[in-house]
Amino acid sequence: MRERASGTLEVEDRGGILVARVHGGPHQLFGKDIADRLDALVDRADRDPAVRAVVITGAHPDRFVSHAEVRWLQEGGAAVPSVGRRGASAIARAARAADRAHLGGALSRTPLGPAVDLERVHQTFLRMNSSGVVYVAALNGSALGLGAEFAWAHDLRVMADDDIVIGQPEVLLGIMPGGGGTQRLTRLVGTHRSLVAILEGKPFTPAEALANGAVDDVVPSEQVVARAVELAEHFGTRSKESLAAIKRAVYFGGSMSLTDGLRVERAEFLTTVLSADGQEQMLDYMDATDATGELPLYTPGVYAEALASGRVPHVRSTAEAVAR
Amino acid sequence: MRERASGTLEVEDRGGILVARVHGGPHQLFGKDIADRLDALVDRADRDPAVRAVVITGAHPDRFVSHAEVRWLQEGGAAVPSVGRRGASAIARAARAADRAHLGGALSRTPLGPAVDLERVHQTFLRMNSSGVVYVAALNGSALGLGAEFAWAHDLRVMADDDIVIGQPEVLLGIMPGGGGTQRLTRLVGTHRSLVAILEGKPFTPAEALANGAVDDVVPSEQVVARAVELAEHFGTRSKESLAAIKRAVYFGGSMSLTDGLRVERAEFLTTVLSADGQEQMLDYMDATDATGELPLYTPGVYAEALASGRVPHVRSTAEAVAR
Amino acid sequence: MRERASGTLEVEDRGGILVARVHGGPHQLFGKDIADRLDALVDRADRDPAVRAVVITGAHPDRFVSHAEVRWLQEGGAAVPSVGRRGASAIARAARAADRAHLGGALSRTPLGPAVDLERVHQTFLRMNSSGVVYVAALNGSALGLGAEFAWAHDLRVMADDDIVIGQPEVLLGIMPGGGGTQRLTRLVGTHRSLVAILEGKPFTPAEALANGAVDDVVPSEQVVARAVELAEHFGTRSKESLAAIKRAVYFGGSMSLTDGLRVERAEFLTTVLSADGQEQMLDYMDATDATGELPLYTPGVYAEALASGRVPHVRSTAEAVAR
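Above: the input entities. Below: the structure tokens describing the complete assembly.
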């Protein structure tokens, strides 16, 4: 009987930026252990107001995450009689219900176990998309299958300019992506490019991924983590509430019908406008306008300064002083 | 107490093309006055069959619309106790109901006022998207926040090749776009490009906006209105009923699931096919085919002529003469 | 009275790849006859496990499909009094119900006939999108209107590098696309590019279509069918069940809200993981890993071999031999 790889996440706190290294055993696989650690990391990032961003990279020299631990996927299937599409739908629904009722643990040794595990991974990825924390993947090495899907669940991706690839090879094993690949890659690079890549099973090189928008930057291998931290720090300076509201409006509202999406945006917008922080900053903006006679965003240098620092510089006290 | 900017729209009728100039006060802001005038303009364009297109530009030398009047956004929030996401959702729903019941006026001095105003702006933008009138933004200057969102609500955008920008800086004020920016920009340039731009708060230069499809043309400053009018005239030659049906199918159906979107298209399609104009033109097309022995769209020169004039040239009388 | 063009599809079986040539009469039109033959072809391809892909091309020297037979569209409209959008919606719903109840034949001579025919064409195109069979359009010549919509319903498109075009000219006849053009082109090239092209009625040249992703390859005229067959053979080597599941997840799930789309993916994924073929291949993959000490997809040469053959090479027997 084969040993199950025992994976872990090694987390380092760099003053509000958590840098997590995936240790996925000799084959650098994403299995249940990694899924559990990731869930805990996302929890921590959401609960600790000091955490602004998370950078995730692979501890393996040339792999980010090779792909899912195949036994994890296969085992459940072996225990379940062949069920067809209707049956699979029913299992997916049951797993969702079990996850909501926190029955995951109780069911993990049953045939429903792997489907419940999958449901949990999906919920974790969705929480990354709903969060005010910025997630940056530092792709030090290849990411296939669930490795790629994990990368698509981040907000930004930096990839090493190396002989590595990212993509969805599942079709070549007679299966298909199950960790969101058909959905997130489709929304990232467009329906057709995504369809062709997943039907063929062919991964993207760093240059291809950069050209089609699947990754945001390609840098020399030794700079991948540094560049990812730089992006994490830059985006992490913004208001966490604003980031969360924007991510929810774009990821969820942006994939709905236009009218439904606009409703999502309006509810999120009103929350930020009614917040103490939003109120404070808008009042300050108006005071600065009165004091200087120009809108701050149109005052030379101010917009650039705001982009660098994450917020329009506070001029209220100055303005009040000037105004008196 | 600060004065509220009083804005207006100056509208010039150039034979079916309305050219509207936004006067937004010294700071060129989009406030309640502009919102009211725009609503009236959209009404007029929809009701007057002679109006085929509307070009909107800024009266300010180097601004299209600076952004929203901040006091307008802030005031409502100040009056409402902090409510969280659930409460904000409830306010958004109440505002929608109030707008439908035409209670906007009665509520405008209450804490719900600004949310009702926002709902009204959304309805106006949606009517621009549903209309058979072609809307072209002539971006003579910068457009930030609600200014950019107003531009995204047009069908086409022409931008001056100048030191100006267009985008969504809201995150830098601790808030987020609320006039449709997270939805329309996402559908215009793709989920990821939109997400990154809005999370960072960084606007596009004219070159960037052209490259990513956020604007359709960039021309020297002094030609912006002329080029926009040219596009308005070109697209405005098409059947107003067809334009309306196509816009609804693409903007609304195109953002639904494929099967729902196909249903929207079919209903719109049947309306145009059953219309007197559609029937007349199809009969004429068949007569021309019989008379000349070739399909008009494949007859040398005819397609080019149709693109220029807006409809396949009427050959029925000629064809009938020939056929007798 | 005009003769109705009688069209047909000439189908050649090249060992699992069906090559179908559209004979659309002297004007190469898509009418009811072609619709019926296509429906039968899609049936055959879905029912015969030996059929892996279908290549469709035009028998006409320089047309793929000119456009729809205009009389087919127009006749129904002539018989129906003008009904407006509400009425057209009702007709579309009635046609859908009639098609589901297999009443098409009984209604084909009534005013509802053409709407029922349209509904049938839509169902055929949707079955192409749901199928494990790969559809490749070999665009030997121009494709306008329904001809273009037929091409968008394929999975891949190869176009001749010739003086030909593909697009939606309907607006120039006072109507609009009704065979899915506003929906599939929108999802293929993005909302804005699709909107502008359909509002203007201007088709794409081969170079434009390649640049914006509307076609996948442009080759010299005499190589169009050969290149399409090559693509059909390449993609057709993949597991038919995987291809079907991926197509449904991307085409249907990919156009839903992210959360709904993820649900579609999960149900499709579980089906493939629970299938005998998926189980077999995953077990083999693990055996090969144990036998060689490396994951097959990371073993030099194996991924390239899998891409060429359509599946990760079977090493189970070898591995077992080695392992003993």
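Note for the figure: The CA atoms of residues 104 and 116 of chain A lie 6 Å apart.
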